[in-house]
Amino acid sequence: MKAFLVERYSKKExxxxxxxxxxxxxxxxxxxxxxxxxxxxxDSKVKAGEFKILLPYKTPFVLGHDVAxxxxxxxxxxxxxxxxxxxxxxPDDFRTGTFAEYxxxxxxxxxxxxxxxTMEEAASLPLVGLTAWQALVEQAKLKKGQKVFIQAGSxxxxxxxxxxxxxxxxxxxxxxxxxxxxxVKNLGADVVIDYKKDDFEKAIRDYDVVxxxxxAATLKKSMNVLKPQGRLVSISGPPDPAFADEIKAPWFVxxxxxxxxxxxxxxxxxxxxxxxxxxxxxxxNQLRQITALVESGAILPVIDKxxxxxxxxxxxxxxxxxxxxxxxxxKVR
Length: 333
Description:
Elements: E1 2-6, E2 16-19, E3 29-39, H1 41-48, E4 61-62, E5 67-74, E6 86-89, E7 102-106, E8 110-112, H2 119-123, H3 126-139, E9 147-150, H4 156-167, E10 171-176, H5 181-187, E11 191-194, H6 200-203, E12 207-212, H7 216-223, E13 226-234, H8 241-246, H9 251-270, E14 274-277, H10 284-296, E15 303-308, H11 312-321, E16 327-331
Parallel strand pairs: 9-10, 9-12, 10-11, 12-13, 13-14, 15-16
Antiparallel strand pairs: 1-2, 1-4, 3-5, 3-7, 3-16, 5-6, 6-8
Helix pairs in contact: 3-4
């Protein structure tokens, strides 16, 4: 099969297109013929080696964290899927590699694709959908009537999180540029702050939840918009000791995470707010709940551009440029 590989960790080096064997499947896995794969900032960060402590992939490896496609073959213990099923997934860490013609996915991380959207739209959803779900539903336990501040509303996670928060009955504030104000309002944002012109720290206060996806300076300012006992969930770091325990990190990695998050945890304690780091996990069960929201019309996919498979490097560069309004997808088949 054809696949795009990271030959060595590098920010600037392009992925290489190579002919490699189809992946073998374990007894609990499904072989999926890839129709479409989304491109995420995570792909760029993994390629550059920014997550080597958490995800020490051995080069060369196939990149890609989102897939929609068709089941080709199932493992001996798989009972929930059969050849021909249209499916989508964010494969498990160390079993990723969706910038390819085929990918092996654990049955527990797979779900039937929503029947009211295309393969390209389905591929745009798993990583951002699971991130938003695990941040707002699992960690923050967002409830009807609460107020949530979701940063970067026109980005992939922001677009999904705004719609999910509105479905849960929350009041939503977000940041974006002036060009994207109408889009995020149409998605359900109640308060929209032009980050180029206004300071969100002065515009909003007494919020119950913040979903942080930006830099350390934004994280620090975000603490000041929360009410006492409010919840700050960050998907951009710093990783905390609770996360280290969750992933059963080695002792030295735990110490690194403890040190990296010390200042953030101390500031949160002084302000009487709760801080947690989130690194999204694969989950077919949560994807099935997301499927129901998509099929009901509560969640709409938003795609900026679709690139052909042979333009995968260009798709990655476009995501790295930060210009995308919505998701960027590669059409593989």
